[in-house]
Design brief:
With 388 residues, the chain is α/β, with parallel strands linked by helices. It has 14 helices and 10 strands. Strand 9, helix 8 and strand 10 form a beta-alpha-beta unit. Bound molecules: D-allose and zinc ion (2 copies).
Length: 388
Amino acid sequence: MTDFSDIAPRLAEQAIELPSWAFGNSGTRFKVFAQPGVPRDPFEKISDAAQVHRLTGLAPKVALHIPWDKVDDFGALARHAADEGVALGTVNSNTFQDDDYKLGSVTHRDDRIRQKAIDHHFECIDVMNETGSRDLKIWLADGTNYPGQDDVRGRQDRLADSLQKIYDRLGDDQRLVLEYKFFEPAFYHTDVPDWGTSYAQVSALGPKAMVCLDTGHHAPGTNIEFIVMQLLRLGKLGSFDFNSRFYADDDLIVGAADPFQLFRILVEVIRGGGYGAGSDVAFMLDQCHNVEDKIPGQIRSVLNVQEMTARALLVDRGALDAAQTAGDVLGAHGILMDAFYTDVRPALAEWRESRGLPADPMRAYAESGYGAGIAASRVGGEQAGWGA
Ligand code: AOS
Ligand code: ZN
Ligand code: ZN
């Protein structure tokens, strides 16, 4: 099997974007459990995210959500991020918390509402111009609850038209990533339910439009790594929203529910050239920490991604190819499983120390006193956005 020392240099190429909304209060539709010390504004969200990067070296960017993270001066927010040692990343649009969008946003039959949704995306691009962000991420709550409620073909045509207008606003170095989700909040159909629909829509737009794959947005049993392989093969995998799901779109800590699935996904990412320097694929987290502490929740998440990335890098490609070519079914399978079952945690602890990072970032955070500090100094933290 490949030796850890052979893959160690590649680990430095890992960069994961943290979602600003992971640091605010969040919950389910049943209850939001407020936590002490949550950020009172976007500046404090960035400061909390920076703690994760400081202790792990893995999270140099923070994704924003507009209008949740709206500030008067985005230049000042970007400077604050730089002072904290991170940068602002993907800008997420929000067309799901306005009464006007009850029956749709960029797919709406009413020209006024559709234009309002398009204008919101123009505003997001203005933000990107100020923050220096590369990606505009679009997730739509658009869909219907009942068969016959609307003409699904017409909605798809309006979606294409709206996306084209948004795409045409992008700068040369900016991208649009279109996220798909097979249900919720609409339950009969969603207007971008699957990778095929996202792929068809972004392909019609042009090279700056890509697919965003949220690992929680598939039916149970879906072979997600196959989708990863296909999108990389087609050159259209723009970004990941990483999280874990047991039942629905649970937004739990990535790698917590099914580390083996995360490993299989990362094997295909590496195989398809989607990892590290030279790749444009954005690795984001899309998670909420409803009952666990938020900053440690994010630290655990990026460590989980790193652990599975290391295991995926350990796959002996040469031996695997030889076994596959020889038709050695169980031999090939065994080579993959050898890498998966390798406990990389001690080697990663050493790797961290060699780079001036704490061997155990979870413990380092617990001992840092940061959590107690923000609990004492911040009063009246805001909700992340859901239900706000
Ligand atoms: C919604 O289900 C999508 O995963 C979104 O990417 C995201 O969760 C939302 O935009 C912000 O929380
Ligand atoms: Zn998502
Ligand atoms: Zn989601």
